Amino acid sequence: MPAQRAGIQSVEVGFSLLQVLGASPGPLMLRDLASAAGMSAAKAHRYLVSFQRLELVTQDPGTTRYDLGPAALKLGLASLSRLDSVKLARQRMAPLMEQIGQTLALAVWGNQGPTIVHWEESPQAVTVNLRLGDVMPLLSSATGLCFSAFMAQPAGSRKRSAASNSHQSHDRLPPLLRDELTRLQKLARKDVPKTMAEVTAVLDEVRRRGLARVVDTLLPGVAGFCAPVFDADGHLVLGVVSMGSVATFDTDWDGAVAQPLSAAARQLSSDLGYAQA
Questions:
Q1: How far, in Å, CA of 155 to CA of 234, rounded?
Q2: I want to staple 241 with a disulfide (CB 3.0 to 4.6 A). Which of 81, 105, 209, 216 is the partner?
Q3: Backbone angles phi, psi at 120, to 5 degrees
Q4: 238, 108 Cβ separation under 8 angstroms
Q5: Closest Cα to residue 268, out of 112, 126, 104?
Q6: Are 104 and 95 in contact (CB under 8 A)?
Q7: In 112-147, which positions are buried (b, 16+ CB within 10 angstroms) versus exposed (e)?
Q8: How far apart are CA 206 and CA 166, in angstroms?
Q9: For every one of its 277 residues, what pLDDT tens digit does the chain have, with 9 covering 90 and above?
Q10: Can you tell me the distance from the alpha carbon of 145 to that of 87, in angstroms, rounded to the nearest whole number?
Q11: Cβ atoms within 10 Å of 149's Cβ, excluding its own
């Protein structure tokens, strides 16, 4: 562990009040705020007076409840504007691979669909003929199913402007799904959806589980999971993918791959400002 550096304890104590307000669904009375932060009302009030002067906290004169102020909003927006989701995810890949023991990848939505932008191969990995820049199929890969499910139905209720990349990607998804379904129907494959009703059912299951899985679908003998990562607006920004040989890859929904992968994706979403309902 790195050496503990000296700090200002009062700042750390006072910050607990801001943390409580940040996690609360709405403004709080002094007694409730103080109790949740583990301090007396009198002590909390002294901190809140200073936070009000700094505009980190506001108090409604009618209800006397406290809430986060404009300075807190400015700090939050500044932090969000500097976040790079892929860079942040890449920093988490090494410890996640050590925990899972399988190949990991990151995918984002590109011009033609979900695209692999980072790849870290496990020493025990099965050879997979995939490269950076490859566009994953929407209905026969875990990555494609994840993007299809969560772009069609964003996880958050807040909306972006019509000019946003997320909105444009959402508009392009239905025709891409229809085109791929048509190609699969011509191939008469048995391991993929054959009708739009079946596509809807598969994507509903992905959303219900919060995770997409394929086994022997994209490539024979290969299984994979893809977990979604959301931004502060509840829109999908990337998928965290794990894949490996069915001989060594745990395909259980609650297994040694799915659980850590889902936990890592949830933490990334939280770090990007997403608050799950």
A1: 5
A2: 105
A3: -130, 115
A4: yes
A5: 104
A6: no
A7: ebbbbbbbebbeebbebebeeebbbbbbbbbbbbbb
A8: 20
A9: 455 677 788 888 999 999 999 888 889 999 999 999 999 999 999 999 999 999 999 999 999 999 999 998 888 767 655 658 888 899 999 899 989 989 899 999 887 789 888 888 877 666 566 777 888 999 999 999 999 999 876 665 433 333 344 445 566 788 888 888 888 888 877 778 888 999 999 999 999 999 999 998 878 888 999 999 999 889 999 999 999 888 889 999 999 999 999 999 999 999 988 987 5
A10: 23
A11: 25
Question: In the block, which residue shows the tokens 């699969």?
Answer: 184
Instruction: Give me the residue label for tokens 């403004």.
Output: 27
